[in-house]
């Protein structure tokens, strides 16, 4: 819930005292409907919306109606009809859109988490076709809250609509450098990458991303953002390279797993390796179906299963106890599927 | 501390306060919630359904009949010009109503909102209404008009905000009215898939960051339209893991974000639909929800030491119900109403099908 902007609406002169409004009779809100979930409206609110209802009823398209929508929007920036009507008036009265952009900039600054205000900005930019200030503006908002969902959605729209890709990777890199756990920035990295390249083709780009991830994981291992991103990149790579797993990822994991240091035992690392072991073992199980005597395959499955069961126990009792039920369930899956090879 | 949350005397005392908070929501709200001025039907749904889950519907501050009439007052069944471009359904409040007669569109700018139609139907079901005053055809025609080419829906005929939230509302409405013929399910499905992110969960629209609320909307929609099985095994696996990883004590809505009471419902319900909620820690979850409980007013907030609000209060109650909190009625995870209200709906469906013959 955003803060009420009521304070900012200071009616120097009440509407009922203004000669230019004397021909309008405000329509009060229906009392009967107001008996349930009644909001203790301020006097300003009652007055402004009384006139707003009257204007809507006759669909008046005038300067005074336009001014009225400003007060109404500031009193309740979440009222989508107020913004809708204001946009109709903007077009009908040929208002200065740059001035409107300035206005909505101020409103967003005080209500950065409101849906309607961002929508309104988008409408203005669509009419203006001038996206020049938009990246700077979203950066300003993201500086205050680097995970503001509205700001990110809006930024993606601006970038896509006006093809403003040039500096996005630098921006994302800066954000990730400042806060490696900023998941919105990681998401934006994926947004950039998947729009810029065809990820079903780009071996080289994907490999570069693997290096990037491993560097960030090495810097901070217990970071879900980088692990999730790594998994997605690997999924693309495997498809290109016919299930050939990127060796450097495995080497990295094995080094971390072999240190034995508690600091390195991130649940994300352990579960990553367990999932890898699972899919590998399943593949080998398939091969065993056609060649049941392959001792080497059986030995490999045993190694994977034992290792995984060891990690699952560690997760359940030490490193990720809140999900103990889940890890125990995965352990029972391992035993069910590969139990015969662990004896 | 954890045991205290399940102590019958304490449970009883807190329930009393929660009832007080919900009753207050149905009566008078402070002007601080002014941004909810267009969403009073949503507030009423939260409060009525909250009381229902607490098994305290007998403590409504108004008569059932007056509440039901009040909700129906928000229904637009007829447009001014005769054709519907997404006008019919329920308004969220009468804040822009200008006429005495309310069930006809009052003026050009008077229109329904999908989330409010969904909320109105849920509240009516909870109150035991038989939906006989619902103009099904008008609502469904309106939904049809609000669906876009990409399969998503806008909330109203006025804005072009289109995302998984309104698709979810539409799915609930179609499910309740027991008619899917006005919505293009294939397109809706492909829109939902396009909202699935590289993290394995869903964002609010394509390419947006995976988010707990959006993930609930997407998964519940897939469940209601009977499309959950169309996801691959691997997709389901990643989805479950993403959701399970959201638990810290309470649940977070995004990776590396702080936990918040409402996600005990958004993520909790998603996990329930996916059949893996029992892999989470119930005591830790309950404990966190009560860290956000306000001992004076009785509501829940998003974080400890914050002001409670109706949304987090209802989500907190639903979150508790999902993890078998004592004395609470179970909820239907996808519809976000009590199992009792859901059974009432099933009876209505039965009745409607018999009436055809
Ligand atoms: Zn919340």
Portion of residues within helices of chain A: 55-70%
| Rg calculated over all Cα atoms of chain B | 20 Å
Counted up, domains of chain B total 1
Count of discrete alpha- or pi-helical segments spanning 4 or more residues of chain B: 13
Shape of chain A: elongated
Distance between the termini of chain B: 58 Å
How far apart are the termini of chain A? 58 Å
Per CATH, the architecture of chain B is Alpha/alpha barrel
Q: Write the CATH fold name of chain B.
A: Glycosyltransferase
Topology:
The complex is a heterodimer of chains A (343) and B (357).
Chain A: E1 38-39, H1 43-58, H2 63-75, H3 80-92, H4 97-110, H5 115-128, H6 134-144, H7 149-162, H8 168-178, H9 183-196, H10 203-219, H11 224-240, H12 247-258, H13 267-290, H14 295-319, H15 324-342
Helix pairs in contact in A: 1-2, 2-3, 3-5, 4-5, 5-7, 6-7, 8-9, 10-11, 13-14, 14-15
Chain B: H1 8-27, E1 28-29, H2 40-53, H3 64-72, E2 75-76, E3 89-90, H4 114-126, H5 136-146, H6 164-177, H7 185-194, H8 212-224, H9 233-244, H10 262-273, H11 282-291, H12 310-322, E4 331-332, E5 337-338, H13 339-356
Antiparallel strand pairs in B: 2-3, 4-5
Zinc ion binds next to loops of chain B.
Subunit structure (chain B): Heterodimer of FNTA and PGGT1B. PGGT1B mediates interaction with substrate peptides.
Family (chain B): Belongs to the protein prenyltransferase subunit beta family.
EC number (chain B): 2.5.1.59
């Amino acid at each position: 819930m955003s803060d009420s902007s009521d304070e900012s609406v200071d009616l120097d002169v009440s509407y009922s005292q203004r000669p230019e409004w004397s021909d309008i009779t405000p329509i009060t809100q229906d009392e009967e409907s107001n008996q349930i979930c009644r909001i203790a409206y301020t006097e300003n609110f009652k007055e402004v919306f009384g006139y707003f209802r009257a204007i809507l009823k006759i669909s008046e398209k005038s300067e005074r109606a336009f001014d009225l929508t400003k007060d109404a929007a500031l009193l309740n920036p979440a009222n989508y009809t107020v913004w809708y009507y204001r946009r109709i008036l903007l077009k009908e009265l040929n208002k200065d859109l740059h001035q409107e952009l300035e206005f909505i900039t101020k409103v967003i600054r005080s209500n950065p988490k409101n849906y309607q205000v961002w929508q309104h900005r988008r409408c203005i930019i669509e009419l203006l076709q001038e996206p020049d200030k938009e990246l700077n503006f979203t950066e300003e908002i993201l500086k205050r809250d680097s995970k503001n969902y509205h700001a990110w959605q809006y930024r993606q729209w601006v970038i896509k609509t006006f093809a403003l890709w040039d500096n996005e990777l630098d921006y994302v890199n800066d954000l990730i450098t400042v806060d490696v756990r900023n998941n919105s920035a990681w998401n934006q990295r994926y947004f950039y990458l998947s729009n810029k390249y065809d990820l079903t083709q780009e071996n080289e780009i994907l490999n570069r991303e693997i290096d990037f991830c491993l560097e960030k994981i090495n810097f901070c291992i217990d970071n879900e953002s980088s692990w999730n991103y790594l998994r997605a990149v690997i999924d693309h790579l495997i498809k290109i390279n016919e299930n050939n797993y990127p060796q450097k990822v495995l080497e990295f994991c094995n080094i971390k797993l072999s240190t034995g240091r508690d600091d390195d035992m991130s649940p994300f690392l352990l579960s990553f390796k367990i999932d890898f072991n699972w899919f590998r073992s399943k593949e080998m199980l398939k091969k065993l179906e056609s060649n049941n005597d392959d001792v080497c395959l059986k030995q490999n499955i045993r190694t994977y299963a034992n290792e995984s069961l060891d990690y699952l126990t560690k997760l359940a009792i030490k490193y990720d106890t809140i999900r103990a039920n889940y890890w125990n369930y995965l352990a029972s899956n391992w035993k069910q599927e590969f139990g015969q090879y662990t004896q | 501390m954890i045991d205290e949350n399940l102590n019958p005397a304490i449970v009883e005392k807190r329930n009393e306060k929660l009832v007080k908070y919900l009753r207050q929501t149905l009566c008078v709200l402070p002007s601080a919630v002014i941004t909810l001025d267009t969403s009073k039907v949503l507030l009423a749904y939260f409060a009525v359904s909250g009381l229902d889950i607490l098994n305290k519907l007998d403590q409504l501050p108004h008569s059932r009949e007056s509440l039901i009439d009040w909700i129906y007052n928000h229904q637009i069944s007829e447009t001014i010009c005769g054709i519907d471009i997404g006008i019919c359904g329920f308004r969220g409040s009468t804040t822009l109503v200008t006429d005495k007669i309310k069930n006809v569109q009052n003026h050009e700018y008077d229109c329904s909102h999908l989330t409010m139609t969904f909320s109105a139907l849920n509240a009516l079901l909870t109150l035991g209404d038989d939906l006989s005053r619902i103009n099904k055809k008008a609502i469904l025609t309106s939904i049809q008009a609000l669906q876009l080419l990409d399969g998503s829906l806008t909330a109203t005929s006025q804005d072009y905000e289109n995302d998984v939230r309104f698709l979810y509302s539409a799915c609930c409405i179609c499910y309740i009215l027991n008619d899917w013929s006005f919505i293009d399910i294939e397109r809706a499905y492909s829109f939902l898939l396009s909202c699935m992110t590289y993290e394995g969960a869903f964002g609010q629209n394509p390419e947006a960051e995976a988010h707990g609320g959006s993930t609930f909307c997407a998964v519940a929609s897939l469940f209601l339209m009977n499309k959950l099985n169309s996801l691959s095994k691997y997709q389901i696996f990643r989805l479950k893991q993403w959701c399970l990883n959201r638990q810290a004590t309470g649940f977070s809505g995004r990776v590396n974000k702080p936990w918040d009471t409402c996600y005990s419902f958004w993520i909790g319900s998603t996990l329930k639909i996916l059949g893996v909620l029992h892999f989470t820690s119930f005591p830790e979850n309950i404990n966190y929800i009560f860290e956000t409980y306000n001992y004076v007013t009785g509501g829940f907030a998003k974080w400890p030491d914050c002001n409670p609000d109706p949304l987090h209060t209802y989500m907190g109650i639903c979150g508790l119900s999902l993890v078998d909190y004592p004395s609470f009625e179970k909820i239907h995870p996808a519809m976000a109403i009590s199992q009792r209200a859901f059974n009432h709906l099933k009876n209505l469906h039965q009745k409607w099908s018999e009436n055809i013959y």
